[in-house]
Specification:
Elements lengths: L1 H58 L4 E6 L9 E6 L2 E8 L2 E8 L5 E2 L7 E4 L2 E8 L2 E6 L2
Parallel strand pairs: 5-8
Antiparallel strand pairs: 1-7, 2-3, 2-6, 3-4, 7-8
Length: 142
């Protein structure tokens, strides 16, 4: 009988370990999904913020707004911001591949006083946005 009790104990412990292994796998998968969603929400928030600033600046003479472009998204994910005529695009490498998040704006002429093309990138740092001569200017100030 001693051998049977020991065997039953080992079997029960095996099931307990298997249960915890499956539970920890499920929790880690859920955590990865939450992190991926947080990156996407952070990118959407940034795109919407820059887009709304561009829209307001295009409609308001004398308007000036200062804002920060962070160095990374939630969890340290690197990204890029492209401001173009009519939209802002935030691109980043997510857990499911390369992701673009865009937000439209009503400013159809934007510039950063360095690029004459239809779009330009905003690097991490502090920016001022204002209307000048019919264009919305994004100027890096810090």
């Amino acid at each position: 009988m001693r051998g049977q009790a020991g065997l039953e104990f080992v079997a029960v412990m095996g099931f307990v370990i298997l249960f915890f292994a499956i539970a920890s796998l499920a929790i880690s998968q859920y955590s990865l999904q939450v992190d991926a969603k947080a990156e996407s929400v952070d990118a959407s928030r940034l795109a919407a913020q820059i887009s709304s600033i561009a829209s307001i600046a295009s409609a308001s003479t004398g308007y000036r707004s200062e804002f920060d472009v962070p160095g990374s998204l939630f969890g340290g994910a690197p990204y890029s911001v492209i401001v173009g005529n009519a939209s802002v695009i935030v691109s980043f490498e997510g857990q499911r591949g390369f992701i673009n998040v865009s937000a439209p704006h009503s400013a159809y002429a934007v510039t950063n006083n360095e690029s004459s093309g239809p779009g330009f990138a905003l690097a991490a740092g502090r920016y001022a946005a204002y209307e000048q001569g019919g264009k919305v200017v994004f100027e890096k100030i810090g």
